[in-house]
Amino acid sequence: MxxxxxxxxxxxxxxxxxxxxxxxxxxxxxxxxxxTPKRLxxxxxxxxxxxxxxxxxxxxxxxxxxPATLAAPSTALKTGYEMFxxxxxxxxxxASAGRAYAGLFLGIVVGxxxxxxxxxxxxxxxxxxxxxxxxxxxxTLALIPLVIIWLxxxxxxxxxxxxxxxxVPVYINTHAALRSIDxxxxxxxxxxxxxxxxxxxxxxxxGALPGFFVALRLAVALCWTAxxxxxxxxxxxxxGYLMNRARDWGQTEIIVxxxxxxxxxxxxxxxxxRAIETRALSYRRALGS
Length: 289
What we know:
α5 (about 75-85) crosses α13 and α6 packs across α12. The protein has a single domain (about 70-285), classed as Orthogonal Bundle (MetI-like fold). Helix content is about 80%, strand content about 0%. By secondary structure, it is mainly α.
């Protein structure tokens, strides 16, 4: 073989080798993409509740469920519409929402601040983490007698107890996310000479967002769960008050109206958190994470 022929052979072999080495990379990426589960649309996630409502309605219409035991969903929806139309429902709905979201807001703010102090400083962790873990072990309902002595039985007591119920999951999940931030990001921040405030803004908070949104979904559920119990304690307004009064008169349709309202408010709140989470963490999908 001449020198020219040898050089052509070497070039051709190099091209084929280069293609063989670079080809598997997109193939692996496509396989990983196919193995990644897709998030279900919001409508599909409602399939379970819809089936339960249909079965409930069918059992009521066929006589398996007595109205005195449990009103049919259609009866409850009709009653709820009538109460909304005559203006007797909206004030109680606004009162319940105000209590729930006031306690939720305070719990989120205080929980995030405490998580930042405990997650980013040793002294903060020594002072704060043990106290939150103690609160975690004490049920919120066990604090009701003491908080009534402190704050009475008015709105402040209810908002405070919702706040304490929300605080724990927000702190624990945000704190855990802060402690698990990639050490490489921390070292890079030190190399770039970021100040403490810049580190918190550009590294700590973005790194803790996934854990924070997990906490936020738990907190939204807990604020409504706590409200259900608290509104049964000497209240004159709220969905819980309506349900308690309906119990005395055996009005199961109004009790079901209250249950449906709590369920809808919880689902809507969770859907809002999901939408915010999807938007805030869109960069993870862009990076292929």
